[in-house]
């Protein structure tokens, strides 16, 4: 008996506007779930529109002694929580709220550090620049699970290995290929739908980096 043909693997990438509201996230979830039913699939997602600019602008202001980052954190919290209220069950909202607070905790800690030293370092900026992608991936994965898909958020910092050129890191191709085969491919083979953060990588030592603004397309191409 001949072997069953392998289903094609499709990578779907959605930008910030596509996940900018609860309604749009719902559409992305429907589109992604339908694709996962037909073929093997991976989703790459950006931050909600405007989130990355807000994170970076507020962090740079913190280095000047401006505490507007507190308002920025609350704005990000409110925007994502409102979307979660629309998209998720009570239990899912509780789990997502914890993940949201963890990401915002990193943002607040880095901003406090910038405020203390009076400088926004490239390494610190990279630590927070892609937090919007982390939050967005968690929200979309939870939305997909609510719709019955076997989805899981995957941090690209655990997949894409880069040098330490913060702000515009270079991908280390062989190390990245090995990570993808080890950590991402098994999920796909088990029928899980990974929702991967765009724009984001990490050094060999696990220090977060970014691949340059607008590089979520590059992330999708790598995958």
Structure, described:
The chain is α/β, with parallel strands linked by helices and 223 residues long. Helices cover 56% and strands 12% of the residues. It has 8 helices and 6 strands, in the order βαβαααααβαβββα. The strands form 2 sheets. A 4-stranded parallel beta sheet has the order 1-2-4-3, with helices on both faces. The protein has a two-stranded antiparallel ribbon with strand order 5-6. Strand 1 (9-14), helix 1 and strand 2 form a beta-alpha-beta unit. Helix 1 (22-38) crosses helix 3 (69-87), helix 2 runs antiparallel to helix 3 and helix 4 (90-117) packs antiparallel against helix 5. The chain is globular, with a radius of gyration of 18 Å. The model has no long low-confidence stretch (mean pLDDT 95).
Summarize the structure.
With 223 residues, this protein is an alpha/beta fold. Helix content is 56%, strand content 12%.
Describe this protein with a few key phrases:
223 residues, alpha/beta, 4-stranded parallel beta sheet, 56% helix
List the helices and strands and how they pair.
Blueprint: E1 9-14, H1 22-38, E2 40-45, H2 51-62, H3 69-87, H4 90-117, H5 122-129, H6 131-146, E3 151-154, H7 173-189, E4 193-197, E5 200-202, E6 208-210, H8 216-222
Parallel strand pairs: 1-2, 2-4, 3-4
Antiparallel strand pairs: 5-6
Helix pairs in contact: 1-3, 1-6, 2-3, 2-4, 3-4, 4-5, 4-6
